[in-house]
Amino acid sequence: MGNLMVSISGVRGRVGEGLNPFEVVKFVSAFAEFCGRGKIMLGRDTRIHSLLISQLASGTLLAMGCDVIDVGICPTPTLQLAVEHSDASGGIMITASHNPAEWNGLKFISSDGTFLTPEQHKKFVELVENGNFNFAKWNLTGNYIQDRSFLDMHIEKIFKIDFVDFESIKARKFKVVVDCINGAGSEIVPRLLEKFGCEVIRLNCDGNGKFTHEPEPLPENLTELCEVVKQAKADFGIAVDPDADRLVLVTEEGEPFGEEYTIVQAVKIVLEKRSMLSDKNVVVNLSTTKAVDEVAKIYDAKVYRSPVGEINVVKKLLNTLMQKNLTSLLQTSPCPM
């Protein structure tokens, strides 16, 4: 594993070097074992080698006795949502996120749709290092099906968010430029915006996996998007990374809004919509801007911080909710005396 980056977020490396077929089979076999050889959902981004790795992963899972649901090209959050709302034992997303084109990787998703916890990750890596896998007998191999319905399901779920005023947004008839870097968001992001009533100008939305600029959505990589926003007199621009789990906004002046400001704005909107609640809580990681705390003060909300990493934020959120519910239960339960 020397040439691979192995972390709580998954494994990634340069294709043909650190990430080769042997490593794919090893990690996927270990994940099948980790998931009790249950049903696994499989998704991928559009990198030119993602289909190859997906086929390797699928064949390995079937050989381990796992049933496979192939979701196809989709954002990482779509696959997470699909796993959460299914009876699958886990999911594997083929992507290297915002890394350059020669990279690829595997993101491992637990049965609840989140990434593996540190404890789960440790157990999983032990299985990888042990490497002693028993493949299924010829009559016990898994079943393979394709299901491309989850993009639609994801959009439907978004339109069920109760505090979003969809009709007001539609009435604004925003003009939006979208740069999906020909990645996994190329279909779903423009479709979602059109359902919001936006006029969408597509930029790098062919979904062919050919990155027209460096894939990490940093300001220096978004010069084309910024220029098109100004030329088209658009209301704003959107850039996502290859697996569409990271977003950057561009203002009508063609200036990147910045991810730090985006999360502050999101926190402000949610707290504003939830202002009547007596107990308001926000969970972010330790590197998130302290501007979140300033916004939280305005709405009398408490901020909790976790170590960096999506699963750490999720764990902190769940633990916070559990503590709040326990406190509420203790305060409202009758005294046993």
UniProtKB/TrEMBL annotation:
Keywords: Magnesium, Metal-binding, Phosphoprotein. One of its GO terms (molecular function) is phosphoglucosamine mutase activity. GO terms for biological process: carbohydrate metabolic process; peptidoglycan biosynthetic process; UDP-N-acetylglucosamine biosynthetic process. InterPro entries: A-D-PHexomutase_a/b/a-I (IPR005844), A-D-PHexomutase_a/b/a-I/II/III (IPR016055), A-D-PHexomutase_a/b/a-II (IPR005845), A-D-PHexomutase_a/b/a-III (IPR005846), A-D-PHexomutase_CS (IPR016066), Alpha-D-phosphohexomutase_SF (IPR005841), Phosphoglucosamine_mutase (IPR050060). Residues 9-133, 163-254, 268-319 form the Alpha-D-phosphohexomutase alpha/beta/alpha domain. One of its GO terms (cellular component) is cytosol. Pfam families: PGM_PMM_I (PF02878), PGM_PMM_II (PF02879), PGM_PMM_III (PF02880). It comes from the Bacteria. Its cofactor is Mg(2+). Signal peptide: none annotated. Belongs to the phosphohexose mutase family. This is Phosphomannomutase. It comes from Kryptobacter tengchongensis.
